[in-house]
Design a protein that fits this description.
It contains 24 helices and 33 strands. By secondary structure, the protein is an alpha+beta fold. It has five domains: 2-113, Arc Repressor Mutant, subunit A; 153-223 and 250-330, no CATH class; 347-498, no CATH class; 610-687, no CATH class; 693-761, no CATH class. The strands form ten sheets. Strands 20-27-26-25-23-24 form a six-stranded antiparallel beta sheet.
Length: 763
C-alpha cells in the first residue's frame, strides 16, 4: 500500500515485496477513464486502464504493482512492466521523484497517473507543407474541452446568421441555409454559380473559390452545425483569457477527434479522418454573395466564405490527415454566433445521426408554435417532405423519384438507428441512456429486424421513429413508381428539453417523476420553456472585440471595448491579472504584446505542458549512463551523443545547475528541440547519478570543488579547470594512478597536497 507522509513529503511503500516491480498509482481526483487523455493509446491499453478504473471504483484500491497487473491480466511479468513503461512514455503517467520503497530502496519506481490535459498537436501544416512547431506558433495548438456527455450541443438560428453574414436586413425571415445551398447531388462544376431569388428585393449566389473542388450543399449543413457548436465551445473555454485582450481575432481551433466523437464514428478510421478534412475544405471553398434591390438598383455585396482554414496541425510530419484545424471565421458571422441570446440545444444523437434525420428534426423544431405551447403536431405531404431534403441523381441530374426517395428515407433512418450502438460498443466510456428508438414495419405490419432493413427496404411500409424527444411516423403508400412517403410529427416540449440536455447533466435536473425541474434548469443556465441555453456575458463582450487576423494596432487606436466590461467582471480583473493560467491565450495568429500583464512575456509562447509538445524535426540525441551494463545499478555520469562525428557532452554527479543549463542550451542549438523537453530528459537521468570514490574516500560535491580550486592554484590561467566535470573526467581517466596518490595524501583533509601529486597531468 502506498501512503503519503505529510511530514517528509514522500510517497512510502513498506509492505509490498521488493521484487514486485514498478507501482502505478491513481490519485484520488481520477475517477474514470474520462479523467485521463487516452488519445495516443491503442484500444488494448485503454481497455486495461478501464478495467483498473473499475477495480478502483469497486475496491478503492488505487495502486497496482507490475506483479499485480501481470496476475490481473494473465500476462508475463515483463509484459506488465512494458505496459507501465508505455504509460510513462505516452505521458499518461510520470515518475514520482518523492517515492521511498523501504524494501527496494535502490530500484523502486512509482508512476503517478496524470490527470487529463488539453490535447496539443505536434506539427503545423502551412501552405500545404508540413512545418514544425516553434515558440512562435505553439499558441495555435489549444482547442476546447468539448465532451458530448457534459457539453451542451449549441446551435444558432440560421436565418439570423445569414442576416448577420450578409449584413443585410432584406434577407427574408423564411430564408434558411437549406434555401440558399444547392440541392444534394448537384454537379456544381457544370455552372459558374448557383443563384436563388428569395424575394423581389433579395437574391443569394453561391460560387466556388476553386472551381475544381466541391462546394457545400444541403447534405453538408449538419457538419456546419457541428463546427458552429465546437466554435462556441472554443470561445467559452477561452473566455477568461480573452478578458486580458483589447482585441480578439476571429480565429478558433477545432480538434478532429472531437468532431468524430460528436459524429459517433471511429476516430481511428482513415475514411472518417478524410471525411472531416474533405467537409472542412468544402465549406472553406464555398463562397457566398448576395444582391439587394436598393432604389431600383441591384447592389451586390462582397463574395466571401463563412470561414477559411488558416492552419492545419498534425501529430507528425508524415501524418496523412491533420489533427487540429485553425479556422478563420468571417467576423460578422462569428459576432452573431457569439452574441446569440440563448442558443438552442440539439441532442447528441441528432447531430450524430444521418443528414436527412438531422434536417427533418431541425425543421420540426423550427415549427415550434411558441414558448407557451406544450405540444406540437405537424403533417408533411409527400411534396413537403421532399422539400426538406431535395436530391438529384445520375449524370442527367434529374430529381430523385418518389420511390427512390422513400428508399433513401429507410436507409437514412437505418443509419441513425445503428450509429449509437456501433459507436458505444467500441467506446463504452461514452455509453449513456439513449431514448431514441426507430422501428421498421413491412406491408403486413410486422416489425423488421434492424439487420434485415436494408435488404427489405422495398417492403417497408411504415417507420416509427422517436428521435431527440420527437415522434416521426412515416407511411410509405403505394408500390413501385407510385410509392410516396408521408409523415406525421408530434412532440411535447418537456420530452424535447430532456432529450436535448447532456446525458451527465440530466440527472441533476430531473425530479422524482423523471421530468425536468424548471428551477433546476434555470439554475444550470437553461431556459425552462425550451431547450435553450443562457450564454455568458463574457462571450458577448468578446464578440464586440473581434477583429480580422493580422490587424494593425494603428487601425484600432482608440478602441474602448474593455470599457464595456460588466461591473461584476471589472471587480475580478485585477485578481485575474495575477493568474498565470490566463497565459493560455488561445490559438491567435498574432501574439498581442500591447498592454499585457507583466507575467505574460510577449516573446514566449503561452504556458503549455512541455511533456506533450515536441519538435518532430529536431535532431535526436541519446543519453547513456555510465558505467553501463545490465547488472550495473550505480552510475556516475551520463554521456549525451547526437552523432558519432560530433563531440559528446558529459554531465556527472558533480555538475552544477549552471553546468546543466549550459549543456541544455548547447543541445537546443545543436538539435533544434525545445529547451523544456531537453531539460526534463537530462534531469531524469542526472537524478540517478552517484558520487565516486577515490581509494577509500567518497568524494562529495564540496570535496570535488575543493580539489578543483586547489589544482587551479598550480595552473596557468589558460589551463585552469572551469568545472567540476573537467576534474571528474581527469580523475576517471587516470583513476589507477590517482587512487595510488590518495594512499599517501587525503583528498578530503589535504586537497592542495593531493592536487599537487597530479598537477602535471594538465598541459
Amino acid at each position: 500500500m502506498i501512503l503519503f507522509n505529510q511530514e517528509n513529503g514522500l510517497f512510502e511503500e513498506k509492505l509490498r515485496p521488493a521484487n514486485h516491480g514498478p507501482v502505478l498509482y491513481f490519485p484520488k481526483e481520477l475517477s474514470s477513464i474520462e479523467s485521463i487523455d487516452t488519445a495516443s493509446l491503442n484500444k488494448n491499453v485503454v481497455k486495461k486502464l478501464t478495467t483498473l478504473f473499475e477495480i478502483i471504483k469497486e475496491t478503492e484500491k488505487r495502486c497496482f504493482s507490475a506483479q499485480e497487473i501481470s496476475q490481473l491480466f494473465n500476462v508475463q511479468f515483463n509484459t506488465a512492466r512494458a505496459f507501465l513503461h508505455k504509460l510513462k512514455n505516452s505521458n499518461i503517467s510520470q515518475t514520482a521523484s518523492n517515492f521511498k520503497h523501504f524494501n527496494n530502496s535502490k530500484n523502486a519506481s512509482l508512476y503517478l497517473v496524470n490527470s487529463k490535459s488539453t490535447t496539443y498537436s505536434k506539427t503545423v501544416l502551412k501552405n500545404g507543407e508540413m512545418t514544425t512547431i516553434s515558440n512562435e506558433n505553439r499558441h495555435l495548438l489549444i482547442t476546447s474541452d468539448s465532451n458530448p456527455l457534459i457539453t451542451p450541443n449549441l446551435s444558432v438560428n440560421d436565418n439570423g446568421l445569414l442576416k448577420a453574414f450578409f449584413n443585410s436586413t432584406q434577407v427574408p425571415d423564411h430564408t434558411r441555409l437549406s434555401n440558399i445551398l444547392p440541392i444534394s447531388g448537384i454537379k456544381f462544376d457544370n455552372q459558374s454559380s448557383f443563384e436563388v431569388r428569395h424575394s423581389e428585393t433579395f437574391s443569394s449566389r453561391i460560387l466556388a473559390a476553386d472551381p475544381t473542388t466541391e462546394i457545400a450543399d444541403i447534405e453538408h449543413i449538419r457538419f456546419l452545425y457541428l463546427i458552429i457548436n465546437l466554435t462556441m465551445s472554443y470561445f467559452e473555454y477561452h473566455k477568461q483569457a480573452f478578458i486580458l485582450k483589447n482585441h480578439v481575432e476571429a480565429i478558433c481551433s477545432i480538434n478532429r477527434d472531437q468532431i468524430l466523437t460528436w459524429l459517433m464514428v471511429d476516430k481511428d478510421s482513415e475514411h472518417w479522418k478524410s471525411f472531416v478534412d474533405k467537409n472542412l475544405a468544402i465549406w472553406a471553398n464555398t463562397l457566398f454573395c448576395c444582391s439587394e434591390l436598393i432604389e431600383s438598383q441591384w447592389i451586390s455585396e462582397a463574395t466571401k466564405p463563412l470561414f477559411r482554414i488558416e492552419k492545419k496541425l498534425a501529430h507528425r510530419k508524415s501524418s496523412k490527415f491533420p489533427q487540429v484545424y485553425v479556422l478563420r471565421w468571417d467576423v460578422d458571422a462569428l459576432k452573431f454566433i457569439l452574441k446569440s441570446k440563448g442558443p438552442y440545444l440539439l441532442p447528441w444523437s441528432v447531430i450524430s445521426g444521418s443528414d436527412f434525420s438531422f434536417l427533418l428534426y431541425l425543421d420540426a423544431r423550427l415549427k415550434w408554435p411558441g414558448k407557451k405551447s406544450a405540444s406540437q403536431r405537424i403533417n408533411y405531404s409527400a411534396k413537403e417532405l421532399k422539400k426538406i431534403f431535395p436530391m438529384v441523381i445520375g449524370r442527367e441530374q434529374v430529381p430523385q423519384s418518389s420511390e427512390k426517395f422513400a428508399h433513401y428515407i429507410v436507409t437514412a433512418l437505418h443509419e441513425h438507428a445503428t450509429r449509437f450502438k456501433n459507436f458505444t460498443k467500441k467506446n463504452p466510456s461514452f455509453l449513456f441512456k439513449n431514448e431514441d428508438v426507430i422501428s421498421f414495419y413491412d406491408r403486413n405490419h410486422n416489425e423488421v429486424e434492424l439487420l434485415s432493413v436494408l435488404k427489405k427496404k422495398h417492403y417497408i411500409s411504415q417507420i416509427k421513429a422517436y428521435i431527440g424527444g420527437i415522434w416521426f411516423d412515416f407511411i410509405m403508400d403505394g408500390i413501385g413508381a407510385n410509392k410516396e412517403a408521408y409523415l406525421e410529427v408530434h412532440y411535447k416540449s418537456k420530452n424535447v428539453i430532456r432529450s436535448s440536455l447532456p446525458a451527465r447533466i440530466l440527472p441533476s435536473i430531473i425530479d422524482n417523476d423523471n421530468e425536468c425541474d424548471s428551477t433546476k434548469l434555470k439554475a444550470k443556465g437553461y431556459y425552462s420553456y425550451s431547450p435553450q441555453y443562457y450564454f455568458s456575458e463574457e462571450l458577448t463582450l468578446h464578440a464586440d472585440k473581434l477583429v480580422n487576423p493580422g490587424f494593425n494596432y494603428n487601425t484600432t487606436a482608440g478602441d474602448q471595448s474593455l470599457n464595456n466590461v460588466p461591473d461584476d467582471i471589472v471587480d475580478i480583473i485585477v485578481d485575474q491579472y495575477q493568474n498565470t493560467d490566463l497565459g493560455l491565450a488561445g490559438p491567435l495568429l498574432n501574439e498581442h504584446t500591447v498592454d499585457l500583464p507583466n507575467f505574460l512575456n510577449g516573446d514566449m509562447p503561452p504556458i503549455l505542458d512541455p511533456k506533450i509538445i515536441r519538435n518532430v524535426e529536431a535532431r535526436k540525441f541519446v543519453i547513456a549512463r555510465f558505467p553501463a551494463g545490465k547488472n550495473v545499478v550505480i552510475h556516475y555520469h551520463i554521456w549525451i551523443t547526437i552523432t558519432k562525428d560530433e563531440p559528446k557532452l558529459l554531465l556527472s554527479y558533480y555538475s552544477t545547475d549552471d553546468d546543466i543549463n549550459k549543456t541544455v542550451d548547447e543541445l537546443v542549438q545543436r538539435t533544434g528541440d525545445f529547451k523544456d523537453r531537453i531539460l526534463e530528459r537530462i534531469k531524469a537521468s542526472y537524478s540517478t547519478l552517484q558520487p565516486i570514490s577515490v581509494g577509500e574516500y567518497l568524494i562529495d560535491r564540496v570535496s570535488m570543488s575543493n580539489i578543483k580550486e586547489a589544482l587551479n592554484t598550480f595552473l596557468e590561467d589558460d589551463l585552469k579547470l572551469a568545472s567540476n566535470d573537467q576534474l571528474y573526467a581527469l580523475i576517471t581517466n587516470n583513476k589507477r594512478h590517482i587512487v595510488r596518490y590518495s594512499q599517501s595524501v587525503s583528498p578530503i583533509a589535504d586537497p592542495l597536497g593531493f592536487a599537487s601529486k597530479f598537477k602535471h597531468y594538465i598541459k
